[in-house]
Design goal:
Blueprint: E1 28-34, E2 37-38, E3 53-59, E4 62-70, E5 73-78, E6 88-96, E7 99-105, E8 116-118, E9 132-133, E10 136-140
Antiparallel strand pairs: 1-3, 1-10, 2-9, 3-4, 4-5, 5-6, 6-7, 8-10
Amino acid sequence: MGHEVPTEDPTEYGNDCGCFDPGKTPKIVVATFSLVALCPGRSWPYGINLNTAWELTQKPTNPCIWEYLDVPWQIIWWASLEAHTKSHLIGYGRISPTARAYYFNSNNVADACRVNFDNALVLGSCDANHRGYDGTGKILV
């Protein structure tokens, strides 16, 4: 004997962003990072590794920006040209109460609504403000 399968879409929708069909912009997306490496002599902030999944919530001030913000990480996805000059994914780590450093930065990618990103930071990027390099990021909607 089986069980009843729900027919309703369980997705919670937010404000419309041009990357999605009208009325189908998700309020929450998931950003995943993999194979992001630490610069020599650096560690993950507060011991929390970036290489995992993060739930990002649509910003009420701009429907094409999703963000996770909690100690120690700030993860932001700019989905389209409506939100930023280009599609972009970043992962900042809070390294002190008043300072943050990049561990992942896709830089600006030309095509809007992009969901797959490479880290533009390379080993040679390592300095006080850039503490991670390599790896990939992906947005799951």
